[in-house]
Design a protein that fits this description.
By secondary structure, this protein is α/β, with parallel strands linked by helices. Helix content is 44%, strand content 20%. The strands form two sheets. Strands 1, 2, 3, 4 and 5 form a five-stranded mixed beta sheet that branches.
Length: 394
């Protein structure tokens, strides 16, 4: 085997081929390096004293089904300039790695087409080795995205696992890229993001988020000039939760068995968009019947549906008039649940109306978080949280 083939086929350059060993289903190529070319791996000085050698074996590109290794005796060098004693730099492998760069590139290429388990089985290596190679590549390319061009962002959390464990994501609404993932769902989860954002020079104009007091406080402290927009998805979800609680409370109070069954059967119909009610399943009639028998539930339901129109107004002036009218109707209803919702919306009034200044929502981030959840289910969970962060959707 020629030294030229060693370079062109296996990416090993600057070394001389000496011999090859065969056995145990693997091939080992022995190579050497001219001692006169050795340099200090820290300062690059040629003024070095040889202090022995260290024998190492590097996994390289396979030949067919046979594993291939490169054996090298690496000199230990004492540098006269900096005084340190170190191993000479290996030109075809990264420090503290047991495989060549060519093997790493091969794993990454396979990883784009196969699962980590399949790549490991094909190459006869450990699962963790393949995962670490992919993780390092993802970290190198995506761990620290540039923040300079951020204008509109969205902030939300997603559940990592059972036990109320969450992570916070920040999305660039212009590019659709996840620019930060933090541990937890409180304001502290965003501290690393603010630390990177300050020197970036980004001029963020608006932030879409839910009504979390912790997020709101963090944004106010770090982006005092940015508009906070409360997303209508979270408003609708809050209203749906309260409506479900009201239906459950009314169901407990009923004594008529028939009316209890009717009310129990419309649990999901109350939360459905009226346009999506299935006529073949008679869902519209069933819902109307349940509402006709329960006036408080009907009033709350129609208030919920009417609130949808807030985000369909032609401008902020019309939206302000609509919101004021809705709040008055909710108070006048005399029903506790709509009144509680009106109190909440009045408290977050500025964040609701800010939608008509920025025209942004966190719907894109909700979709991204759903992709992350799908990614977790497909992978049957992640043992390495850092790997989950760098493997997030782009």
């Amino acid at each position: 085997m020629s030294t030229s083939l060693l370079y062109h086929a296996f990416g090993v350059r600057g070394y001389q081929y000496t011999r090859a060993d065969f056995g145990d289903g693997r091939v080992i190529f022995h190579i050497v390096r001219d001692d006169s070319t050795c340099r200090c791996s820290a300062c690059g000085s040629a003024e070095v004293i040889h202090r022995g050698v260290v024998s190492r074996l590097f996994r390289s590109l396979p030949i067919g089904r046979k594993s291939t290794f490169v054996a090298l005796r690496i000199p230990r060098l004492e540098c006269r300039r900096c005084g340190g004693v170190r191993q000479a730099e290996v030109g075809f492998a990264d420090p503290r790695r047991s495989y060549t760069r060519a093997f790493e590139r091969y794993v990454l290429e396979l990883g784009r087409r196969m699962t980590i388990r399949d790549v490991a089985k094909l190459l006869g290596v450990g699962w963790d080795m393949v995962k670490e190679i992919i993780k390092r590549d993802l970290s190198r390319r995506f761990a620290r995205p540039k923040l300079k061009r951020l204008v509109d962002i969205a902030i939300d959390e997603f559940a990592v696992s059972k036990g109320h464990r969450y992570m916070t994501t920040v999305l660039d609404l212009d590019s659709g890229a996840v620019v930060f993932v933090g541990d937890g769902k409180a304001g502290d989860a965003l501290k690393p993001f603010w630390k990177r954002l300050r020197p970036s020079g980004a001029k963020i104009k608006a932030v879409a988020m839910d009504m979390s007091a912790a997020y709101r406080k963090a944004v106010r402290e770090n982006l005092p000039r940015a508009a906070i927009v409360f997303d209508h998805f979270h408003i609708s979800k809050l209203f749906n939760d309260k409506l479900s609680d009201l239906r459950r409370e009314l169901h407990r109070e009923l004594t008529d068995g028939l009316r209890k069954r009717v009310l129990k059967g419309v649990r999901w119909l109350l939360l459905k968009d009226p346009a999506n009610l299935d006529e073949e399943k008679d869902e519209k009639r069933r819902l109307e019947e349940a509402l006709a028998w329960n006036k408080p539930l009907a009033a709350a339901y129609y208030m919920k549906e009417d609130l949808r129109r807030f985000w369909e107004q032609p401008g902020k002036t019309f939206a302000t008039l609509f919101l004021d009218g809705w709040l008055k109707r909710a108070w006048a209803s005399g029903i506790k649940m709509p009144q509680e919702m009106a109190r909440t919306l009045a408290l977050y009034r500025s964040g609701l109306l800010a939608y008509y200044d920025a025209w942004i929502t966190s719907a894109q981030l909700e979709g991204t978080n759903n992709k992350i959840k799908t990614l977790k289910r497909t992978a049957y969970g992640f043992r390495d949280k850092e790997f989950l962060v760098v493997a997030r959707p782009r």
